[in-house]
Amino acid sequence: QPLWRWAIIKSNNSCHYVAFVMHHIIFDGISKIIFLNELSDVFNSNNELAIKKIQFTDYLEWQTTQTNFDRRQAGNNYWLKKLAPLKKSLILPHDLPQTKFKNAANNLQFSLNDGVYKAIRSAASKYGVNHYQVLLAGLFLTLNRYTNQEKLMICTPSANRTRSEAENIIG
User: Fold this and answer.
1) Chain centre distance of CA 4
2) Which residues contact 130 (CB under 8 A, 6 or more apart)?
3) Tens digits of per-residue pLDDT, 87-101?
4) Whole-prediction pTM value?
5) Which residues, listed in sequence order, are joined to residue 168 by a DSSP beta bridge?
6) DSSP characters over 45-108
7) Which residues lie closer than 8 Å to 39 by C-beta, 6 or more apart?
């Protein structure tokens, strides 16, 4: 099985679609967005892409140096020690027995009315944070109220792009 497939679909003389199917091992989510944005830029402007100041190989070399490895290892050890006392699961009130599912993830999509969105935007501006951080704080407060657990661990995905020059490279 190939890891990716392309197809160009002609709708009419002036309209074509590009279908791109790939295995998740090729790109992480951020890289996919970067790739699709660059592809769109090339198609829409008929210009070549600018050569980036650093390439993925530069980033990989930096990331695998011993100094950086030691720094990351020290960071990992710090957080493992800091988070060790936290409970591994929430104790939520419920009226049904808990299931034994592990790593079960679901997507929940919802819309915010204008008033709620304006309140989030206002809070973000007031405290100098982004909208995501305001919503994360709201989730924390909600879980705290339901569980009465003072210390909670909420895990969020990270692209692990800690250097600004690596934010827009694929890899």
Assistant:
1) 22
2) 124
3) 777 777 776 666 665
4) 0.56
5) none
6) H--PPPPPSS-HHHHHHHHTSHHHHHHHHHHHHHHHHHHTTS-SS-----SSPPP---S-----
7) 18
